[in-house]
Amino acid sequence: MRPLADATAPSDPNLSSFGQDPWWLIGGKVLAIFVFLVLTVLLSMWVERRVISRMQLRVGPNRCGPFGLLQGLADGVKLALKEDIVPRQVDKFVFVLAPVLSAVPAFISFIIIPFGPTVSVFGHHTPLQGTDLPVAVLLVLAMSSMGVYGIVLAGWSSMSPYSLLGGLRSSAQVISYEIAMGLSFVAVFLFAGTMSTSGIVAGQEHVWYAVLLLPSFIIYVITMMGESNRIPFDLPEGEGELVGGFHTEYSSLKFAMFFLAEYINLATLSALATTLFLGGWRAPAPISTVWAGANTGWWPVLWFLVKIWLFIFFFIWLRGSLPRVRYDQLMKLGWKVLMPVSIGWILVVATIRALKNEGHAVGSLFIYIVILAALVLAGTIAWELLRGGKKPDAAPAAESADPAAGGFPVPPLDAPHYHGRPAAAPAVAPATDTSRKEVTSGIH
């Protein structure tokens, strides 16, 4: 295929810019995305452990390589060489398939993320993006839904109650938070007029959607924490009650694939937030206004990476700062707060867009509505988590409860023989009934 002339190279990629690359360039893009994700995972693990250790006044990894930079690689080699233990009663086919279903969709999602504008690679003008689709954003939602199958099947096939509960928790959590995440995208689609990632980046040439659509941005930030199964929403892996959750029975490379999928999803969610709300690969306003060439050539890759790592640091910061929420708080926030607010916000955005298309001046009105909606959303979330999340007081227990009711038979504590040993005689004589009557009569 002949390279395009410089005069015909578009400044911003669009849907027509894809599907014209030679085979070696397509393979190079796929390989570059794969290497980028693997290196991002290794570096994210190191940054997370170093940052959290600094927050907790510890040292963190500092043995493998300079400053401990090779610690993630050492952990990967260690996991690969460990014994692969498969419990006897598991469904072996599904048990092996589940980690693959979690890791592969995580890699596929990144193919539609734009890294930069159109550049020249060995004489060929090509966008710095794997590919683009008219419904590219929906591909990310579809792949994240496929990844949940891996978690659910891992919990079901392990034949363990802890793993099964972790898988069920993850399915319920993703259903509630992915619906809210999809609703937060609708406002972006209405403003951009497309679901293509390159078209959404082009629509933010002057103002980022994080400013115009602030409530949608806040909802997405909350839902992406729920989507990633990380603190404070890591209920599927709650160590305190589920030992480790859906991957309790996994070891060696199978466990490593779940670990890999979690950190790749971390990078994918950060890249999607950058693309939809922070202008994608475009430079921030102070740089783009002062420097005319900030959004041309290979420089946009730098701005894109800086934005991604700011989001990754945000994830790490939350993990080192916030406690895990209760499960009822988690589900209530998704179903009773994020979804209704998202639907109401979509109606407002659609109305504003319709008025604007008819020629009405709604600029200042829209700004006030955005601020009001953001305040309402923040207040509702605070109300549900701080006040509405309190559990009702438990009913008083019966005075004479049967210890063997509804569970394993337990001998009473006042039995003469407890655990096969005779009860020891009391060293001090018990108090008389008179003293007890005096105390209780004073209370009543």
Automatic annotation (TrEMBL):
Lineage top rank: taxon: Bacteria
Residue numbers spanned by region Disordered: 422-444
EC number of the protein: 7.1.1.-
Topology within the bilayer: Multi-pass membrane protein
Catalytic activity entry: a quinone + NADH + 5 H(+)(in) = a quinol + NAD(+) + 4 H(+)(out)
Chain ranges passing through the membrane: 23-47, 93-115, 135-156, 177-201, 207-226, 255-278, 298-317, 337-355, 361-383
Comp. bias intervals (Basic and acidic residues): 434-444
Record family assignment: Belongs to the complex I subunit 1 family.
NCBIfam families (alphabetical): PRK06076.1-2, PRK06076.1-4
Protein name: NADH-quinone oxidoreductase subunit H
Protein encoded by which gene: nuoH
